[in-house]
Structures are given as C-alpha cells and as structure tokens.
Amino acid sequence: MFKRCNDNMSKLRKEYQKYQYYLLDLDGVVWRGDKPIHENIIAIKKLMDLGKYVYFISNNSTRSRLDYVRKLHRMSLKVNVDQVINSAYATAYYIREVYGKGKVLIIGEKGLYEEFKQMGFDVYYADKSVDKVDYVVVGLDREFNYTKLTNAVRHILKGALFIATNEDALLPVGDEVIPGAGTMVAAVATAVGKRPAATIGKPNTFMINMLSKRDRIELEKSIIIGDRLDTDIAVACKLNIDSLLVLTGVAKKDNIHNAPCRPTYIADNLLVLFEEC
Q1: Alpha-carbon separation of residue 138 from 60, 98, 109, 175 (angstroms)
Q2: Under a CB-based contact definition with an 8 Å cutoff, are residues 94 and 197 in contact?
Q3: CATH architecture of 98-199
Q4: What is the mean pLDDT of the chain?
C-alpha cells in the first residue's frame, strides 16, 4: 500500500480540484461485480457536491446504459443516462454512424442486444440460426459456447463485418477476476484468421471523443480514473489527458513499474482525495 503522505498523494490532494471533468470507469472503481467500493462512492459523491462534471465510461457491454443508471442509483449515485457511456451503446452508435443500420449477430448479453435494438438494428443472438447478417459484434458473454462461436465464424467468413466491443482479458468480480470480452474476441479472431475491423472500448479513444464532442468537454480540464493500466491509463496517454490509477480493481502496485504508459497519479482509493495526512 502507498504511504498516506508520499509525494504522489500530496500532489494529488493539491491538484485534484483543477479538473472540471471526471471520467470514471465502473468495474473496479465503483463496484466489483455487485459489491460497492464504498470509499470510492463516498469520494464520487463529494466530487458531485463540489460541482464537478462526473461521467462513467465502461468497456462492459453486458448491461444497457439505463441498467447502469439504475445500478448507480441503488448505490446512491444520482446520475442520468447521458452521464453513462459503455461499449454496448458506443459500438451501436459507431456502426450506425460509419456503416449504417442492418442485421447484427451478437455474442453478448442483454445490454448489448438492447442498445442495438434502440439504435434501430435487427439484432440476433449468436445461438440463433440466421440466413445472413451484416455485422458480427462480439462482447462479454457469460454463456459463450461452441454454437455461438460457430455461427459467428460462419457469418464473418461469408462477409459480415467483425466488430469487438472491447478486448479486456479480465473482469473484476467480487474478490476475484473472470474472463472478459477479450477471451471471446480472441476465439473468434483465431477461428477466422483476422482481427476485428474495429474495437470500440478503451484503449480506443472513440468513446471519450464521442462524449467530448457531444457535451463539449474540454479534455485539457479532464482526468480519467480507472483500475486498469491497459485500458483506462492507456487511453489517457493516447489523448494526453491526466489519469489516476486506483488500486481497487485489476491493477496492482507491482504492475505499474513495467507499464508502457504510466498514470499521472496512483492511489489506494478515491477517498484519499479528501483525507488529511
């Protein structure tokens, strides 16, 4: 654990108020599975009370944005749907804007299905038999099986565009981690012999750039907060935005020294922003 009053902590406490926009991950920052991370939630409330603009940007595609809002409300974080961007919504938005609507086969869960339906796509789960689709979208699917893999591969080999919501290898749940969407993406990519045409989630900059354009967010006044070096901190480096790595999720202190992209700040949890030495 980090000493409470080291140089990193002192700098963080002095400088956090200069940021107007706080772009936070969800899994590993607000919760682990269904277990709230209480210290971080208390700090997020304090940031909101200070008038900071708080957004939640998640690679997880298993829930819709509305479901995430409901979950945040259950944890006493009063937010609206425009404050949440996840890879399910962003992937549907990306395909609609770049390629247009069409038939979509998904390896994924209810949230991914719902976001594509709301965007006006014809959506089919990958365990269903469909004659022809325009897109195969792969996200986290905790009921992933050989039938879904076979159907996805069949359509991609017939010409359907292969898109990934994200490529996170692991997902923090409770006191452990489980395979993430990257596991399913890797299986499909191995079978078809090619990478996805696009991967929407972090460290891709698409979600943050989309949000910045929509809400006119000044990225130079923003900070990205997350628990992963390979996604949250990596996307901050790509955008030249300051970042805070919290050690409440996937990343551990020992991982930081070998990371190609280092966070601006590191903290055990978000509450250190408000604690005295």
Answers
A1: 12, 18, 10, 26
A2: no
A3: 3-Layer(aba) Sandwich (3.40)
A4: 93
